[in-house]
Design brief:
The protein is an alpha+beta fold. The protein is built from 14 helices and 14 strands. The chain has a five-stranded mixed β-sheet with strand order 9-10-4-14-13. A four-stranded antiparallel β-sheet has the order 8-7-11-12, with no helix packed on it. The protein has a three-stranded antiparallel β-sheet with strand order 1-2-3. Helix 4 crosses helix 6 (about 110-125) and helix 7 packs antiparallel against helix 8. InterPro entries: TPR-like_helical_dom_sf (IPR011990), TPR_rpt (IPR019734). Keywords: TPR repeat.
């Protein structure tokens, strides 16, 4: 029965994969995102997985940064996530929680927590503050849950986001709790520490800017006790400039603090603890490794054999000419034959080397799963934060190197919070 169940899951997984969005499906939307055009980014999002976890959260995130207020799909996803949320212990005795969606996707802790914070911010935008507080408490419980001292997931950027949600509901004391927790997680940040020592004036604003185009996965082969698992290792790479950002408002200039650390959202995503999922992935990947090795081994053998035969033929031809030159007592003919023999050796060797390199390249392309790796894109690589003691009238963003591409939303909440996005790819 177990075998039949695994076969059924494998077939289901194979069918699902044919309709899942891959990196190439995001190319157009990512280009628009890097240009700072959020409306165009949303319109160019992949149509696959339209109602799946990834698609809903990506669209909700982008729409919020674009000033949108339609949260219904995100609200449905949040309710569903509560029913599907699972808590588990890893083989290394570390505990964590995860969410399995209907399409077989395993959401990370950061994605799940951000989902509820984002929904709370949507509620604050439409002034449904009691609902916003419920989402804030739920996200706080997930961040603070003592699943185990080693495995508990907590994050300073998520704490800052949660604090901004509490501020938007007018709950300053709760916001201070998360600002203090962010300080504990990131004690080297003077800017975060300063947020815990000053009160927020009634007419002030908290500024939170998402930065960078988002990390992308790439293949990272490494030595691993599990050879097949080792080949499937990935790493995330970032491309944001981490610029120094300024907020300008009439005659006022405010320096925003760059806060790194969201790369941990992506790295944590690589953690998986569902045995069936890993078994299927490893089994499928082992088949891919075997097929690729056989294919490239066969092709490589044929190419190398052909290269050796061609080289040997040329060498034989040169040797024949040397023989004829010796018989005819012609030094020129003998020298020409020797030159041809040397050329044959070199040509054959070069072709063999090229065949080996071609096989390496083809194997790497076939086994590189980074193009199909599933995760929520468009999350920040880092953020900027700041605080204004007075109301902002006409805020603009710039840098020490000049104008930047950006998008700012109107301030929301009882204590005003303003969000924005800077792709941060322009040359300084």
């Amino acid at each position: 029965m177990r075998i039949l169940a695994l076969v059924a899951i494998t077939v289901s997984f194979a069918i699902q994969c044919s309709s899942l969005a891959k990196r190439q499906d995001y190319e157009a939307s990512l280009r628009a995102y890097e240009s700072g055009d959020l409306s165009k980014t949303i319109s160019l999002l992949p149509s696959k997985e339209n109602k799946g976890f990834i698609s809903v959260l990506e669209k909700a995130h982008l729409s919020f940064l674009n000033g949108g207020s339609n949260y219904k799909d995100l609200e449905s996803l949040a309710e569903e996530s509560k029913e599907r949320l699972r808590f588990s212990a890893t083989r290394s005795l570390k505990s964590f929680f995860y969410l399995e969606s209907e399409d077989g996707y395993y959401a990370s802790e950061a994605e799940i927590i951000y989902l509820h914070i984002l929904l709370g911010l949507y509620y604050s935008r439409v002034e449904e503050y009691d609902k916003a507080k419920i989402q804030a408490r739920y996200a706080g419980n997930l961040l603070s849950g003592e699943w185990s001292a080693e495995g508990q997931f907590d994050d300073p950027t998520l704490r800052l986001l949660l604090a901004s949600l509490w501020l938007s509901t007018g709950s300053k004391e709760e916001a201070m709790v998360d600002f203090r927790k962010a300080t504990q997680l990131k004690p080297q940040s003077h800017s975060i520490r300063s947020l815990t020592s000053e009160t927020f004036p009634a007419d002030g604003e908290f500024i939170f800017i998402f930065g960078g185009p988002g990390a992308e996965p790439s293949m990272d082969p490494s030595v691993n006790l599990n050879f097949i698992r080792g080949l499937r290792n990935l790493k995330f790479q970032t491309s944001g400039k981490q610029s120094t950002l300024l907020l300008l408002d009439n005659n006022k200039t405010l320096s925003l603090s760059l806060e790194k650390g969201t790369l941990g959202w992506y790295e944590r995503h690589l953690i998986r603890d569902n045995e069936i999922s890993e078994l299927i992935q490893d089994s499928k990947y082992f088949q891919l490794v075997s097929a690729t090795a056989l294919k490239e081994g066969t092709k490589g053998t044929l190419k190398i054999t052909g290269s050796v035969l061609v080289g040997a033929t040329i060498v034989a031809l040169g040797a024949g000419i040397v023989y004829l030159g010796a018989e005819a007592s012609s030094e020129e003919l003998a020298a020409a034959g020797i030159t041809i023999m040397i050329s044959g050796f070199k040509l054959g060797s070069e072709w063999v080397d090229q065949s080996i390199e071609d096989a390496k390249t083809n194997i790497k392309e076939d086994l590189d799963i980074s193009t199909e790796y599933r995760y929520v894109r468009f999350f920040p690589e880092y953020v900027w934060i700041g605080k204004s003691k007075s109301k902002l009238n006409n805020p603009k963003l710039s840098s020490q190197h000049g104008p930047v591409t950006y998008h700012l939303t109107p301030a929301i909440g009882k204590v005003k919070v303003r969000f924005g996005f800077v792709p941060d790819l322009q040359k300084p």
